[in-house]
């Protein structure tokens, strides 16, 4: 058993740069310490270990950020990242919410990953990713610090996403000048990708326009054991048993993975046919064991007549977008950039 | 902004006079795979704005860092590029050990005390060593019965202390995750035994003694808005305009604007109104030259501090985390001596004394030297405090000795005055809570004090300071920084239940605001500086960090839960230090230090 573990570790080392391997393996190891067999979570240790960075109203590499408590009652916080627009000075309370000057600027509402349990909007890995998105897409990014499992189960994360979406869409200072509307895109990785789908659905049902969904290695699943899950179990940083733990922590007690949150096109899913769902960009890593579910999701959207672009990265593992030193990173960033820029003149 | 490559380099477009971009360090080893032919810049956290003097130091630090992997540094981890393969190996090794050890994961998760997770190599090493040694049976945890915070602040008048102590000893074996405000002193014992046993192989990586390079003082500007500014925007605008007018010495304009602030503030609600009012008053004082404020009677300022202590967790967190570090440093010592630079009403010490009283094997002899400014009415205020603590000591059976020292400034102290005893017989801790920054008002003072501290040869120096830069050279920057800082502080008070406590706390903070904004020169004593700046200063003065661990973190987090309306309080670990903040904005930071030469000696 130890030997095959060794083989597994060696395999994953061959497909990612060494520092990325260290980063993801370090997370894997830390996360193993935090999940308890009884379904509880060592939150104190999790917060102690998580590397966080404060917001910074002084621009760095053309991006500045600040945090806003979007809803006091739930302490829902979001981190806003804005392009500097050449002004080169630290923002203060006066000018932090100055209206955007562009004719068209995408506002990307970002939901960080962590399988619904880990990380925060101010986690360093996600702060870094959001800053990169601003620079690459020339967008405003709003990273939502949604409530996490197991302390806050379904539908808390989705509710928080919806609250944030409503907040963003009502900010006059985020409106593109061309049409005095906020051009909203939803983006997320892992559990964040899952949240994107459900928040988009809620938006559509409530008449709030979302221009596109970006799902990076989104978390979907189901009761069935798929081929990719069996083939890749434990091979590239992730085990099925870990995935199961997180679903048990997030889904309502007593529910299984065919719950609509986990399996939107499964037996308990609701049809998306005839619904003006936003166009979707779905990125699937070829070495991610839940890819069958991600591909099924893309297919489900297609079958419902929705606009889907699927980007399948054969040799990518989970977390490839956390560091820029791999070809998948640039491929994906290029795609995201054109995805959010298609309505720019 | 796109760049051609992703190494650290300065932003060439930053022309602001108060900031010179940090020059790029010698580039570290390139990534291990072929670089992407892309235009994506590696974003650097350190690339803040610093003065030219500081950026030089940063340069040295970068070189001294020996080539930290930049991409990992950006996401919060410190791994030398040259160590990457070794760290990978440790990850594999630990994974295997965790798989093999019975209950390994549970042990690492529940019993082990973790330190400084940014240093992955050390973190892994500590865990690997922990798994080798079967954990000793959990020692009895000293518990302090002090759920009712209102009794603990006046705790030096022991009422039912002895019966309280008895009950809590019985409770010592109970659920160790009690949410009482207590010091779980010896949770880290397992680590200590291990570290001592493997000291030879571990000495460069012993968890307590790894010297970290002096940090740069990048001036980030963290901002948390609790309510959208759209409502209060005119008020903030006017405040800033007024500060600008003062800065440019346009006093008639400033005067007009101050009045306008008054009108606008009235229509605001909540924290913003109060903050604006205090800042407006401070601006008015500056305009009219009405500073310093009449010195207030110490019993009034004591009272303000007590209310502040009750309303929000900042002081309690400061005391708690400092005490935790002191307790750990005093482990195994039979005679201990605390030198408190911030004596005030001695609120920090009952908890420490109680924890010492409950030490397995009995308490050490405890000596306290309390240092404070002269009382305006010449009363022997320090002695009174000492006397109350002596009474407590008697009821909890701790041998106690006290000396109060009146000094106008800490810089007036010399080691010879303190009647130090040989370090083999008496271990010393030096403690300073919100005091050191005051020394920055006089050139040379802080350096003098730190050299005296060195002469004291303490086991540990505990320091708590406001996490802000309110000591920059430019008035406008100081005004803006402090406006952000105190806005966040006041926001955190909004949830408190007791309105009188809240008002008093606001007055307490208002005095600081006044000092930062209205005063200059030796009168301006609220010269707060950031953890990064203090790190540099302590490093230069010959100290190395002592890390605070996950045990202190966890208990500090539990402490926060006791405060009503306290949802927003957050404890954060920062390279071995602990910070307390409101939401994502750190507001105070606790650090601990030891003499640099001590790092050769393993505990």
Automatic annotation (TrEMBL), chain A:
GO biological process terms, semicolon-separated: floral organ morphogenesis; fruit morphogenesis; gibberellic acid mediated signaling pathway; positive regulation of gibberellic acid mediated signaling pathway; raffinose family oligosaccharide biosynthetic process
Protein name according to UniProt: Gibberellin receptor GID1C
Active site: residue positions: 190
InterPro entries: AB_hydrolase_3, AB_hydrolase_fold, Carboxylest/Gibb_receptor, Lipase_GDXG_HIS_AS, Lipase_GDXG_put_SER_AS
Matching SUPFAM superfamilies: alpha/beta-Hydrolases
One Pfam assignment: Abhydrolase_3
Cellular localisation: Nucleus
A GO cellular component entry from the record: nucleus
Gene: LOC107492091
Swiss-Prot/TrEMBL keywords: Gibberellin signaling pathway, Hydrolase, Nucleus, Receptor
Major location category of this protein: nucleus
Family: Belongs to the 'GDXG' lipolytic enzyme family.
Domain of life of the source: Eukaryota
Signal peptide (from-to): none
Gene Ontology terms for molecular function: gibberellin binding; hydrolase activity
Domain Alpha/beta hydrolase fold-3: 108-321
Lineage: Eukaryota, Viridiplantae, Streptophyta, Embryophyta, Tracheophyta
Automatic annotation (TrEMBL), chain B:
A biological-process GO annotation: response to symbiotic fungus
Region (VHIID): 305-370
PANTHER family hit by this protein: OSJNBA0084A10.13 PROTEIN-RELATED (PTHR31636)
Entry function: Transcriptional regulator that acts as a repressor of the gibberellin (GA) signaling pathway. Probably acts by participating in large multiprotein complexes that repress transcription of GA-inducible genes.
Record text on subunit structure and interactions: May be a homodimer.
Organism: Arachis duranensis
Domain of life, source organism: Eukaryota
Gene3D superfamilies attached to this UniProt entry: Transcriptional regulator DELLA, N-terminal domain
Feature: compositional bias, Pro residues: 13-29, 133-142
Domain (Transcriptional factor DELLA N-terminal): residue spans on this chain: 69-135
Family: Belongs to the GRAS family. DELLA subfamily.
Ranges spanned by the short sequence motif VHIID, renumbered to the chain: 336-340
Free-text note regarding domains: The DELLA motif is required for its GA-induced degradation.
TM regions (residue ranges): none
Name the record gives this protein: DELLA protein
Leucine repeat II (LRII): annotated segments: 384-416
Chain spans, region Disordered: 1-54, 130-169, 202-222
Positions in coiled-coil regions: 84-111
Chain spans, region SAW: 518-594
Predominant cellular place of this UniProt entry's protein: nucleus
PROSITE patterns: GRAS
């Amino acid at each position: 058993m130890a030997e095959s573990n060794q083989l597994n570790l060696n395999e994953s080392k061959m497909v990612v740069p060494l520092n990325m391997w260290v980063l993801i393996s370090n997370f894997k190891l830390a996360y193993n310490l935090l999940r308890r067999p009884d379904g509880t979570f060592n939150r104190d240790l999790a917060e102690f270990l998580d590397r966080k960075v404060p917001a910074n109203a002084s621009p760095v590499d053309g991006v500045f950020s600040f945090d806003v408590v979007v809803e006091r009652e739930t302490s829902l916080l979001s981190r806003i990242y804005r392009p500097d627009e050449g002004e080169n000075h630290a923002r203060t309370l006066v000018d932090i919410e100055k209206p955007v000057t562009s004719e068209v600027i995408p506002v990307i509402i970002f939901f960080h990953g962590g399988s619904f349990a880990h990380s925060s909007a101010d986690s360093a890995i996600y702060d870094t990713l959001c800053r990169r998105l601003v620079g690459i897409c020339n967008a405003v990014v709003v990273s939502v610090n949604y409530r996490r499992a197991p302390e806050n189960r379904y539908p808390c994360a989705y509710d928080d996403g919806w609250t944030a979406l409503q907040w963003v869409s009502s900010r006059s200072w985020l409106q593109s000048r061309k049409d005095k509307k906020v051009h909203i895109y939803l983006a997320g990785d892992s559990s964040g990708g899952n949240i994107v789908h459900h928040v988009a659905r809620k938006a559509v049902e409530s008449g709030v326009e979302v221009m596109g969904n970006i799902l990076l290695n989104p978390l979907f699943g189901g009761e069935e054991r798929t081929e990719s899950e069996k083939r890749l179990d434990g091979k590239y940083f992730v085990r099925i048993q870990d995935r199961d733990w997180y679903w048990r922590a997030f889904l309502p007690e007593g529910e299984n993975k065919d719950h609509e949150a986990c399996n939107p096109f499964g037996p308990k899913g609701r049809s998306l046919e005839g619904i003006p769902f936003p166009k979707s960009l779905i990125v699937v890593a070829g070495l991610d064991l839940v890819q069958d579910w991600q591909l099924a999701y893309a297919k489900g959207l297609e079958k419902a007549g929705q606009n889907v672009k699927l980007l399948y990265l054969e040799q990518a593992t989970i977390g490839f977008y956390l560091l820029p030193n791999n070809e998948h990173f640039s491929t994906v960033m290029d795609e995201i950039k054109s995805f959010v820029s298609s309505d720019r003149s | 902004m796109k760049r051609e490559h992703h190494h650290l380099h300065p932003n060439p477009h930053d022309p602001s006079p108060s900031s010179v971009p940090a020059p790029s360090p010698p580039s570290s080893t390139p990534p291990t795979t072929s670089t992407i032919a892309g235009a994506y810049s590696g974003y650097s956290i350190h690339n803040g704005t610093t003065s030219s003097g500081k950026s030089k130091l940063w340069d040295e630090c970068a070189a001294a860092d020996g080539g930290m992997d930049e991409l990992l540094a950006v996401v919060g981890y410190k791994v030398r590029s040259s160590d990457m393969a070794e760290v990978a190996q440790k990850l594999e090794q630990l994974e295997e050990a965790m798989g093999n050890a019975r209950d390994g994961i549970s042990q690492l998760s529940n019993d082990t005390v973790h330190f400084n997770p940014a240093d992955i190599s050390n973190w892994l090493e500590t865990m690997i060593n922990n798994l080798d040694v079967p954990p000793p049976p959990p020692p009895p945890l000293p518990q302090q019965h002090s759920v009712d915070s209102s009794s603990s602040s006046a705790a030096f008048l022991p009422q039912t202390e002895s019966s309280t102590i008895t009950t809590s000893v019985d409770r010592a074996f109970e659920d160790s995750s009690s949410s009482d405000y207590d010091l779980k002193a010896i949770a880290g014992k397992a680590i200590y035994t291990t570290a001592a046993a493997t000291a030879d192989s571990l000495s460069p990586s012993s968890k307590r003694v790894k010297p970290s390079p002096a940090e740069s003082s990048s001036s980030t500007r963290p901002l948390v808005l609790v309510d959208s500014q759209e409502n209060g925007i005119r008020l903030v605008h006017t405040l800033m305009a007024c500060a600008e007018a003062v800065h440019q010495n346009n006093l008639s304009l400033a005067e007009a604007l101050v009045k306008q602030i008054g009108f606008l503030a009235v229509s605001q609600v909540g924290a913003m109104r109060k903050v604006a009012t205090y800042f407006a008053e401070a601006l008015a004082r500056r305009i009219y030259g009405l500073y310093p404020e009449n010195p207030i009677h110490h019993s009034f300022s004591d009272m303000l501090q007590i209310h502040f202590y009750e309303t929000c967790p900042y002081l309690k967190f400061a005391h708690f985390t400092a005490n935790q570090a002191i307790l750990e440093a005093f482990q195994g010592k039979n005679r201990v001596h605390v030198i408190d630079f911030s004596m005030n009403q001695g609120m920090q010490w009952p908890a420490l004394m109680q924890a010492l009283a409950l030490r397995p094997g009995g308490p050490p002899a405890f000596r306290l030297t309390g240092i404070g400014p002269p009382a305006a009415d010449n009363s022997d205020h320090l002695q009174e405090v000492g006397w109350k603590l002596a009474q407590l000591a008697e009821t909890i059976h701790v041998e106690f000795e006290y000396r109060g020292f009146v000094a106008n400034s800490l810089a007036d102290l010399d080691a010879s005055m303190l009647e130090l005893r040989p370090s083999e017989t008496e271990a010393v801790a030096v403690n300073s809570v919100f005091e050191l920054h005051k020394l920055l008002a006089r050139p040379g003072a802080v350096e003098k004090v730190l050299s005296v501290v060195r002469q004291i040869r303490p086991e540990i120096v505990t320091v708590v300071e406001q996490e802000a830069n309110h000591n920059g050279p430019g008035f406008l920057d100081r005004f803006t920084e402090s406006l952000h800082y105190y806005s966040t502080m006041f926001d955190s008070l909004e949830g408190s239940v007791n309105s009188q406590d809240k008002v008093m706390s606001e007055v307490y903070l208002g005095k600081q605001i006044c000092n930062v904004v209205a005063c200059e020169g030796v009168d301006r004593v609220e010269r707060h500086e950031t953890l990064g700046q203090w790190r540099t200063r302590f490093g230069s003065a010959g100290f190395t960090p002592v890390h605070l661990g996950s045990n202190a973190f966890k208990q500090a987090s539990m402490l926060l839960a006791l405060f009503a309306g306290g949802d927003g309080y957050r404890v954060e670990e920062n390279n071995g230090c602990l910070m307390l903040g409101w939401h994502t904005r750190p507001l105070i930071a606790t650090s601990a230090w030891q003499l640099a030469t001590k790092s050769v000696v393993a505990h």
